[in-house]
Amino acid sequence: MNNFNYSIPTEVYFGKGQIKNLAEIANLGTKVLMVYGGGSIKRNGAYDEACAVLHEAGTKYYELSGVDPNPRIDTVRMGAELCRSKDIDVVLAIGGGSTIDCSKVIAAAACYDGDPWDLVLDGSKIKAALPVVTVLTMAATGSEMNGNAVISDMGANEKLGTYSHWLKPVFSIEDPKYTYSLPAGQTAAGVADIMSHVFEQYFTTVSGGFIQARLCEAILKTCIQYGPVAIKTPKNYDARANIMWASSLALNELIGYGSGMPWTVHGMEHELSAFYDITHGVGLAILTPFWMDKVLSDETTPKFAEYGRNVWGLSDADDDMTTAKKSIECTREFFKSMGLPETLTEAGVEEKSLPVMAAKLKNTFKKTYVPLSEADVLEIYQAAL
Amino acid sequence: MNNFNYSIPTEVYFGKGQIKNLAEIANLGTKVLMVYGGGSIKRNGAYDEACAVLHEAGTKYYELSGVDPNPRIDTVRMGAELCRSKDIDVVLAIGGGSTIDCSKVIAAAACYDGDPWDLVLDGSKIKAALPVVTVLTMAATGSEMNGNAVISDMGANEKLGTYSHWLKPVFSIEDPKYTYSLPAGQTAAGVADIMSHVFEQYFTTVSGGFIQARLCEAILKTCIQYGPVAIKTPKNYDARANIMWASSLALNELIGYGSGMPWTVHGMEHELSAFYDITHGVGLAILTPFWMDKVLSDETTPKFAEYGRNVWGLSDADDDMTTAKKSIECTREFFKSMGLPETLTEAGVEEKSLPVMAAKLKNTFKKTYVPLSEADVLEIYQAAL
Which UniProt keywords apply (chains A, B) (predicted)? Predict the structure, then answer.
């Protein structure tokens, strides 16, 4: 097990009616920038309830709406400008990962003199940020409890992740009921995203991370148990609650502490989103089984067999290689069962882009679970086409 | 799943050589009260290394040594007095749960005008505390990451737990190497304590806590995997690291959020310790299987069967009741295999005390996993004799 520094300062108010605790925002300041995407937060009740609490708490709030999935650097620039011109104290994100990511970088950009894209390229340039508070309405990215943010510059076909301790929300409201109205496709994509976060930390060459591996399996089993339930019965509270809490625990750093290493599939997916603006979780669900096919080898077989037995309950009677292959098939079938597309073609990706995307990643995966060359990446993309 | 508020503010520096980060204590003040027990921290290197870092950091430190296992309220009174007379800024605990618990209540008592025992009887009276920092040298109680403290008044045969958010350490140093020199008996007792913390949260009637149950199982499997390894090869780093991290995660609130309820076996054990001053983990290891025997019923069988299959890998082929009974036998055999005593008699407890202890608990377990009357408690004690 590697050394690590545990620091998860975000407080979470989890459960039904927890929006009342949004009143705590008044401790952070009186002028709030409320950031959100489209109209979904008006349909699921989060917007009205948040406004009522903010009003009651005596805060003054400004709105920045229209944050896109795969949030744009242009929106960040606009938000940072608003923070400065209105003398904002707190940034409040109401939405899913895109809105929260965008809000985080707005909060940092408001305290930075240069162009916000600098902070996306290099998180260490973030030396301060306005406090961020979130009201989560989609379970997927874990952004509600971590210091990560992914921002796109669509003009340049760039989608990049940044990180800073400064970006960790002060507190987050997680009410599973806000996710009742999510369409099945978004629920499925969210579950795939959560599982992918776990895979990126579960498949590691760091030895001795036994407890971390078991924690990963706990989250994966939760997704497998409740993903289909939430799709079939969208208002099943326990399903929504388990998935929402899984999303936070999958990426609040906990399961990676001591055994984490650089990620793979997320990097490959970011290229897809940057070129085609497809839903992040969809891209991950498509690529993951093909990545697994590619990295399965004599060396990695024991880990995949462990995955198959501990997560999918595959029989001890089979040998490791058989179990490993079955575990990949289970993964593929699970994503398919949730209605997610299986190929890049279905998601609108064209063959001609594959070499361009692979080329951009030629030096990215040198220290990953299984290092991948540009040719390896292209092979995975092509297999997934 | 129930609502919950997640708040785990303690930072942890985990791993080899992390004592260097003790220098951060200088951010909290310049006058430190260093609290510890007997000579073990001088043998395991923690004392010398901590002193060197404190010296280098320019802090001035006073020492309060001799904290007993089952720490005494008298020691707390002495420590609080020292804090006031020396104008202490920070309390630094170096040791295991007893030392940390004692230090926490000292830190609170230093900011309280009345007698410290008030704060043990009622944690809500704690309205402030000096910052607490810990250097952990035994994996067991989880005190390094939570707001709990258990203090005894041996004269009155009282051993009581208190809780306050104010008691949560600001940061903790967890270097598994400091546990290399623990005797086998203490290692085993620590593992039993960790497992008992998990059992108290795993066996719950709150429905829908799927992810919590899986997290519990992750920690239990870690204890089962590495407890025997640490006993056999005390300097196995990964064994010590997994057990140490398990101790923190078992009782930093995480696994109980959303599904926790009042505890049972700890309450029963506190009476043993209060009357006989036996090692907490030993008392828990003795009582746990007998408590399991007692609460196993048609109603609880599915949960015990789940425990047997998911934690002990028992076959799906057996029916629930068979699996449930086997799971209890596995638990009993596991504690025995680590060299822990199986009966209260072995631990020096006399039959004549049992009714007195049971009587003290007559109203304690009315809302537990399975409610227990005074007669039920006595029956468990007698079975364990």
Answer: Oxidoreductase
